[in-house]
Structures are given as C-alpha cells and as structure tokens.
Amino acid sequence: MDTLDYVIETTALTKRYGDVVAVNELTLKVPRGGVFGFLGPNGSGKTTTMGMLLGLVHATSGQARIFGDSAFHPATLRRVGAMVETPTFYPYLSGRANLRYFQAIGRRGSPADIDRLLRLVDLGKRADSKFATYSLGMKQRLGVALALLGDPELVFLDEPTNGLDPAGVVEVRELIRELGTGGRTVVLSSHLLAETELVCDNVAVLSRGKLIAQGTIKELLREHDALRLRTTDDAAARTLLGTLPWVEGVDQQDGTLLVAAPQARAWEVARALADRQIYLNELVPVHRTLEEFFMEITGTDPNTGREKS
Amino acid sequence: MISNIGNLAIWEWFKLRRRWMLWILLVFALLFAQLAVWGAFFSYNGVKETGGELTVPAALQQQQGRIPRTVRCNDLLSGDAARQPADLDSQVVAGLTAQCRQQEAALPARLARGYSNFTLPGSIPNALGTVQTLGLILMAILTASAIGIDYGAGTLRSVLTQGTGRWPYLTAKLLTLAILTLLGLLVAVGSVAVSSTIAAGLAGAAPAAVGTAATWSDAGTALFKAWISIIPYIALTAFVTVVARSSAAGMAIGLGYYFFEQLIVALLSNLFTWFQNVADFLLVRNISAWTGAGGGFPGGAPLPEATQAIVVLAVYTLLLGGIAFWLFERRDVQGATGGG
C-alpha cells in the first residue's frame, strides 16, 4: 500500500509517565476506509495512543501522523472526529447548544447538520435539555454525534456503547458499520470484543503499551486456528506434535489436546500420528472467536478481564 | 489566525452569556455603582441640610455615659436659642460653634465636590473608584470559572479535538474576558449616567462652582484606567487556574490575594523599612497607584508613581500570562477533574 492509503501512521511512538511506560515504541498503520478495531485490556495504552494521535498528549518520543501530517496540526484535526473516554460537554448548555458550540469553533459543517445528527443518535426530543440532566446513555450518544460533526474522514470512537441499553448497542453498531463505508475510517476502541468482531475489518491489539498483533480479523483468527484431538496415546501425541515446525503449541484441555496449527494441515497431523502408531479418536477444527484470541495473546484472565501478571 | 481567535471569542461569549454567574456578577457591579452615586447624593443632601455635623463624645456630654451624639452646624450657627443643644455645657457649645465657623468657610467647596460626585460627569470617576475595586474580585471569579470549567468538566479535550489550536483558544478566552470587563464597566457607567441624571433632578440647583470640577475627559480617563487595572488581575487568576487546573484554586487566590497583599504590606512596611521597596513592585499596590485610588490598609506607605505602576502592571500581565500560555501549550490534556 502507498503511504497515502494509511490514515494513521505511528513510528516508535512512546509515552512515559515517570517510570511507567504507557505506550512503548508503537509502530502502527491504519488503512484508509472501514472500521479499525483498537483493542487491549484496561491500561494497555489505547486511550493514551488516541490522545497522542489527537494532539491531546505529547509523545515522549516517536512520531504520530494523521493523513501524513502532525497530529498537533489544527487543520489535520478538523478532518477528524473523536469521542475519547467519557464524553465531555458543558453541563449548563443543552445538547443542541453544545453541538452548536463545537460545530462553530471547529467550523465543521453547517448548523443545519446538528438537527440531523441529533435525530441520528435519537436525541431529538431531549436536544434542548441541559447536558447535566442527561443519562449516561444519552451523554454517550451526544458524544457520538459530536464525533460525527462536519462529516469527518476519520472518526475515533472510544467505548461508544458504554452505558447504552441493548437496543442502543445494536443501533450504534449499525451506525458504526455504516460510517465505515464510503471511504471514511472509523477507529473503534472497545472492550466488547463480540461487538468489535461484528463491525471491524482490521484490528490492532495492544498489551502493556506494545502492539502485539495487527491485521484483518480473518487473518488473525486463521493464524490462531486450532485442532482439537483425542488419541489413543495423548502423551506421546503431544510430544510428537510439539516437534512439528508448523505446530505453534499443544495444550491439554478437558481431556483433549488443543493443537495450534492451521486447519488445512489436519491431514498431516493425522498422518504424523498414524506413522507412530498413534490413532485418532476425534479430530475437530476449532474456530476461535476474537474474544478467545484476545484473551490468549494478551494473557487476560477470562474471569477478571485483567492482564495476568 | 486572527479570524480563528475572533470566532473563538464570539463563541466564548455564547457560553458565558448562558451562565447565571455572569449576570449575577454584573448585578453586583451595578449595585455598587448605584451605591456610589446614591451614597454621594445622600451625603450631599446631609451636608446641605445640616451645614455639616460634629460628633460630641460621651465625655463632653452633661450626662456622662451616654453614647456619642451629633450636632448640626446649621443649628449652632443659626443664633436661634431654640435650635441650640440644651443638653450640652455652654462651653462645649461655644467650642463646637467655633469649629463649625471654621468648617463654614470650606462648606461651598465641600458641597460643590459632593454635588460633582453624583452628577455627570464627576459621578463616573466617583462610581468607577468603587466598581474598579469590586471589579477585580468579580473578574477573578469570572476568569477562574471561565477557564476552570474546561478542566473541571473535561471539556478542554472536546474543544481541542475540534482543531481550535491551544493558544488561540486561551487567547480568545482572555480576550473575551478583557472585552467583557470593558463592557461591564460601560454598563455600570450607563447606569451611573441614568441615576446621576435622576439624582441631579432631585438635588435641585447646583451649588456655586468652587475649585476644579471633574470633566468628561476625567470620566474617560477613569474608565480607561479602571479597565486597564483589571487586566493584570485577570492574568493572575488565569495563571493560577491553569497551573492548578482548577477554578476553585483560581477563585481562592484571586479573591484572597487582594486582601493578603494589603495586609502584608501594612504589617511589614511598619516593621521593616526595606520592605517598602519590595511593596512598590507588588500587584495590588500598583493597581491602586495606577487608578489613583487611596486603597491599602491603614499604616501602608505611600503608593508608587502612576508611570512606574503601569510598567509594573504590564510586566505582571506578560509574565503571568506568558507562563499560563506556556503551560497550556505544553501540558497533556486529561479527563474531567470535577468542579466547575
């Protein structure tokens, strides 16, 4: 891909807070168009990275570029919409007045867009109520509307479904999917991996400030496909399969062997075992979900949702 | 860039005018302006009616232990026995009468000065003297609130991601506050003009002019000086609010510093003569020196010259404003810190 095909490029981007490295030499490329998932456990550096891309946080070292320009350039930011963490608005202004204010200071689109956006996020009826009176879900939806002001080419959405009811989650998911069409790029950070899997084309996974995986969801999940086996001698099978160069790992799970290997090589697994007089009782291809993949590569404890130390 | 700052300033006004605080502060400014006019009016009427009043201490009264009372010079000088204070010793009355005779010579000038204080254009410098002092406090509150809300509510993040640029945003805020200060003073002056016209009508004929009366040029100068004197105080409050990322800190320092400095100057100037040299470079003293207000707590030393004062105020404005801008530009933007 040409450089211009990437809307975001970071090179060895690093942010330190004293001894703590929040983002560690992050080199990332986000292709133009579609929905890009930015994943990682809490504290993995997602929001800090977004902050550096949006000119809110100064990088300790490295570079962050949006559309090939410095992230601190106001003209660059005018092409970007963002909702980072909790949406922040003036509590004494109404939802409409808040959008009008941000539309005017950023010179984004026209005032007529505000009504359209308020309807889009289902806030038409409460548009003239003060922001301070909004529920968490309403605040979140107003944040999405703010991110869409002026029809930006690149939209950052950090946990956009926080506080939404199930119907709201579905609406926002559909909206994100729609936004990702027509050349616009949406960078979606979410801890709801099932949601992310449904809308994202590409993802990057951060853990402890480092990029640990990037690619299309299909590629990443394919790379991490597995085969579940039951054999006549699991111990011997485990030793044997562990020596094969294309097997990434063999684990014993619930009385079966989980073999990290491409599913297209299932027949080779069967043959290698048979050559040593080990016979299969069962061979099942295992398709992992994004959530399982994420838990595995980030070392996240599925019970607590936190990275294992 | 200028158009960006202009646009941001217009929209800063959009936010500020929707806050009750702005209008409450304006009401306070207007009340104090009115207080200055009507205070001067009632004081003038009192002097005109009584010819001046003298306080008789309890010790000079025939019935010891009574609270101090006042006597009117017009009564004492009337020669009318019925109007003489019956409860005072004749010697005391004679002494008071002599004092009133002395005052009588200065009475026309006093009346002319009093009349000028509540009629145009002299009422404007008179009222601005009061409004300017209050204005420092009011603008400290408004500045801390206008800048601090972006930290408290976390809106700075939403603002900066719109591509406004950091220093244009802070410039627009300070510019708006400076313009609002001027507009607030003009509104106060307008209200003074209305009440002065009414008060002049109620007061009747003007006393014979004695001495130099205030001119419209004096009124304009007083307005300009009052406005300029508040700007360094806005810079001080902006500096504290940005450093502490808190409107509460900005308000506390903005309000407290005004009294703290005067207290310290009054105390230390009496204790250490060298402190007078330090005091001549302190903010509030130079504000008082620039406006020509007496100011200061009792015991304070004479104020610096106005020329020195404006230079010192300019240095304060540039220094405090410069550090505020530098920090605003350099710092990472965090989420909401709470408060407003």
Could you give the topology of this structure?
The complex is a heterodimer of chains A (309) and B (340).
Chain A: E1 6-17, E2 20-31, E3 34-39, H1 46-53, E4 61-66, E5 69-70, H2 74-77, E6 80-83, H3 95-105, H4 112-120, H5 136-147, E7 154-158, H6 166-179, E8 185-189, H7 193-199, E9 202-207, E10 210-216, H8 217-223, E11 226-231, H9 234-242, E12 249-253, E13 256-260, H10 266-275, E14 280-286, H11 290-298
Parallel strand pairs in A: 3-8, 3-9, 6-7, 7-8
Antiparallel strand pairs in A: 1-2, 1-4, 4-5, 9-10, 11-13, 11-14, 12-13
Chain B: H1 2-16, H2 20-50, E1 53-56, E2 69-72, H3 73-77, H4 90-118, H5 123-152, H6 155-160, H7 166-203, H8 216-244, H9 247-271, H10 275-279, H11 283-291, H12 306-330
Antiparallel strand pairs in B: 1-2
Describe this structure in words.
By secondary structure, chain A is α/β, with parallel strands linked by helices. In chain A, 32% of the residues lie in helices and 28% in strands. Chain A has 2 domains: 218 residues, P-loop containing nucleotide triphosphate hydrolases (Rossmann fold), CATH 3.40.50.300; 63 residues, Alpha-Beta Plaits, CATH 3.30.70.1340. A 6-stranded mixed sheet of chain A has the order 6-7-8-3-9-10, sandwiched between helices. Chain A has a 4-stranded antiparallel sheet with strand order 2-1-4-5, with helices on one face. A 4-stranded antiparallel sheet of chain A has the order 12-13-11-14, covered by helices on one side. Chain A is elongated and about 75 Å long. Chain B is mostly helical. Chain B folds into 2 domains: 251 residues, no CATH class; 54 residues, no CATH class. The interface between A and B is medium-sized, with 35 and 29 residues.
